[in-house]
Amino acid sequence: MNSKNIKNPKHIAIIMDGNGRWAKSKGKKRIYGHNNASRAIRETIEACVELKIKYLSLFTFSTENWNRPKFETNALIKLIQNVMQKELDNLIKNNIQLKIIGDTSKFSKNTNYVFQIATNKTKKNSGLKLILAINYSGKWDIINALKNIINNDASLKQIENNFREKLSTNNIPDPELVIRTGGEKRISNFFLWQIAYSEFIFSNIFWPDFRKKDIISAIFEFKKRKRRFGGL
User: Fold this and answer.
1) What is the number of domains present in the chain?
2) Has residue 146 been placed in a domain?
C-alpha cells in the first residue's frame, strides 16, 4: 500500500518521557532534563502545524507525578507555567487553540490563573488544537465521567454516548497515533478509553532530543500501517 495515499492522523497524542534519564546521562539532576524539553515541544507543535494535524495532545503532568519529590513537582509546575506564558504569543500568532484537561483543582490560584489566561486568549483560534493533559490520568477521567452518567434505565449505547460526553476529551476525536519517547513500552495511565484503537510507536529517543524529523518519521510509519479495527 502506498503511504502517500493514506491521510495524516487527525489526532496525535504523545507521552513525553525520558527527561530525567536524559539529564542523568549528562551527569545532571532530573530537573535539568525537564528544563531542556521545551525545544522538543516547540518543534513537535511546528511540525503538526506544517502538516495540518488537527489535534495534538501532550501528556504533560500525570496524577502519579505527585509521588515524586516535592521540589521536583514544584519545579515542574513552575516550568509549565513559565513555558505557557513564554509561548502564548506564538500560540496566538500561529492560530493555535490551547485546551487543558485534568484535575486542575489541585493547583494554586496563581497556576490556574495562568491556565485560564492562556486558554481564554486562544479559544477563538481555529488552527491546531493543542491539548495539555495536566494532573491527568485515564482512570481519573473515567471515574470522573461515571460520576455524572449513572442511569439504570439507559441502554448500553446510551451509556457509552453519555460516557463520551462526560470525558474531559469530549468533542476531541480519539487519537489515531500515540507516540511514547524514552524507550519505555507502556501507556502509564494515559487516555485509557480514547486509545482503544490507536496505533502505537515507541521511540528510544529521550524527549529532550525529540525533533521535527522524528515526528515526521513517526507519521510516515503510521501511514504504512493497515488499520482494521478488529475487522479483516
Assistant:
1) 1
2) no
